[in-house]
Amino acid sequence: MISQRTVSVATDDGAFDLHLWTPAAGHGPAILLLQEIFGVSAYIRAVAARLADAGYVVGAPDVFWRFARNWEAEHDEAGLQASFAQVQKLDPQLAVADCVAALRRLGELPEAEGRPGVLGFCLGGTLAWGVAAAGDPACCVSYYGSNVSQMLGLADQIQCPVLIHYGDNDPYIPMEGIVQVQEALRGRDGFTVNLERSGHAFDNHESAMFFDPEASRSAWAKTMAFLGQHLPLASAAS
């Protein structure tokens, strides 16, 4: 049975919550799960449970803690607009630093085996790229991070394997930006860019605006294969 609890992550400016899901085994490789602009919402909690069911220890930090502790919005138009207003308050450098602190805290937990990986969606997809450069994760999965194309200069600092997912019809991420990422990472060992025939946030089953079941299944299968290779479960590694 999956267990849940919350631990605190300390920073020089205060402490914030790291929401944890521990698999039935009570231990396993760990994944830092980074939220969309909707917060650690029903969708992120469902993804955490999905990963914990597979055998991973999952930690989802409260990214908006500096201005809206444990912010959570509905996955509808009103929630989208309210979340856009919140994300305008986010300092990207501080947010990455907070996520790196959460990664470190997650790796220190007795349930966590080895170095954690990082996986993020939307806003979290961009932050995951930043964490891959500034932290020391075992691997990184980024789902439709809109600002990754503006942070390609960090690629030389990233030492872990990276899988990036995009939709080819994303209204928030122009195809030119996706092509920039593809071109910058082409031929680099350890970097993979996957393009699904879909729009933005296609994995978010809580959002009628965005969810695409076919693209979600396709990308998730690739994600789990990637994690199986770079953050293997004990049963798979033995």
In words, what does this structure look like?
The protein contains seven helices and eight strands, in the order βββαβααβαββαβαα. Strands 1-2-4-3-5-6-7-8 form an eight-stranded mixed sheet, sandwiched between helices. The relative contact order is 0.14. The model has no long low-confidence stretch (mean pLDDT 96). The chain has helices at 42-54, 77-87, 92-108, 123-134, 175-185, 213-230, 234-237; strands spanning 3-11, 14-22, 30-34, 57-61, 117-121, 140-143, 162-167, 191-196. 36% of the residues lie in helices and 21% in strands. By secondary structure, it is an alpha/beta fold. The chain is globular.
Contiguous low-pLDDT stretches (5 residues minimum) are none
The proportion of residues in beta strands is: 15-25%
Q: H/E order of the elements?
A: EEEHEHHEHEEHEHH
What's the helix count?
A: 7
The rough form would be described as globular
- The helix fraction, in percent, is 25-40%
Mean pLDDT equals: 96
Measured between the Cα atoms of the first and last residue, the distance is 23 Å
Give the strand tally.
8
Largest sheet: 8 strands, mixed
Alpha-beta classification? alpha/beta
- Lateral arrangement of strands in the main beta sheet: 1-2-4-3-5-6-7-8
User: For the CA atoms, what is the radius of gyration?
Assistant: 16 Å
